[in-house]
Amino acid sequence: MPHLTQIKVRGYHLDIYQHVNNARYLEFLEEARWSYLEDGGDVEFFAQMRLAWVIVNININYRHAATNGQTLQIATQFSKVGGKSAVIHQVISVAGSDTVVADADITFVCLDQKTGKAVPIEGELLQRLAKHLTD
Length: 135
Description:
The structure is a single chain. This protein has 3 helices and 5 strands. The chain has helices spanning 22-39, 42-49, 123-134; strands at 3-8, 51-62, 71-81, 86-94, 100-112. Belongs to the 4-hydroxybenzoyl-CoA thioesterase family.
């Protein structure tokens, strides 16, 4: 089941055309990922393991303009865990409607903060990430 985060569109999110600027969607997606990780206790886990998430690819599709005052709902869930990377799928929609504003697939690796290198997703790390595929 996806984790849900709500964000209200404010005036400072808008561009000259009075809809959410395309770069702001990346911030909305990041806020929702942080909320998801905090709610699941993963922030502490990764801090203890001295691992950082490093985004290596974002594919985003802009579907519909969001405007001032709307409440957006961001659904966040893992879609794939591989040997070296994992993918989180996120969908931004207008809360209370079927209107999809944007959707994205975010690929990340786990970086060892001491060595600065990506680590294989195996053992305890694999178990931790794989549980999100079934949540």
